[in-house]
């Protein structure tokens, strides 16, 4: 009989002052993470590979290793997933600040002087 014990692989907290999205790949599960939320990434089996975590202005993406079976909980329960792409886009549009205008970078050219 297979074990039903879950292994906690990581605890990830949204330490920002605004909601973010949390994506579990390669399954494409998308969750809304409120400020101060902590999600636990769980595995059905002991980890045999590395867990990659990427962050950006919009959220956090966790990538499972080959052959992994991962799930996410918040306070011991699975958080609700964002329903579809349209809902995710509305959430992102509302929660991500508008980008600032790009600053102009100056190109500086260095010239070498021959040794005397």
Mean pLDDT: 77
Quick one: overall form? globular
Low-confidence stretches: 106-112
Write down the secondary-structure element order: EEEEEEEH
User: What strand line-up does the widest sheet have?
Assistant: 3-2-6-5
Structural class: mainly beta
Q: How many strand segments? A: 7
For the termini, the CA-CA separation is 81 Å
- Using the CA coordinates, give the radius of gyration: 20 Å
Number of helices: 1
- Percent range of helical residues: under 10%
Largest sheet report: 4 strands, mixed
- The fraction of residues in strands falls at 25-35%
| Number of separate structural domains | 1
Characterization of this structure:
This protein is mostly beta strands. It has one domain (7-95). Helices cover 9% and strands 32% of the residues. The chain has one helix and seven strands. It has one helix spanning 85-95, and strands at 7-13, 20-25, 29-33, 38-43, 52-55, 59-63, 70-73. The protein has a four-stranded mixed β-sheet, with helices on one face. The protein has a three-stranded antiparallel β-sheet with strand order 1-4-7, with no helix packed on it. The radius of gyration is 20 Å and the shape is globular. The protein starts with 6 loop residues before the first strand and ends in a 21-residue tail after the last helix. Residues 106-112 have low confidence and may be disordered.
């Amino acid at each position: 009989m297979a074990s039903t014990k879950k292994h906690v692989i990581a605890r990830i907290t949204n330490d920002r002052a605004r909601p973010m999205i949390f994506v579990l790949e390669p399954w494409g599960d998308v969750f809304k993470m409120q400020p101060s939320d902590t999600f636990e990434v769980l595995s059905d089996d002991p980890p045999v590979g590395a867990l990659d975590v990427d962050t950006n202005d919009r959220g956090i993406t966790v990538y499972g290793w080959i052959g992994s079976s991962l799930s996410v909980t918040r306070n011991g329960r699975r958080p609700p997933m964002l329903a579809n792409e349209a809902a995710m886009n509305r959430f992102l549009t509302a929660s991500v600040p508008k980008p600032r205008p790009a600053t102009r970078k100056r190109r500086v050219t260095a010239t070498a002087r021959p040794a005397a």
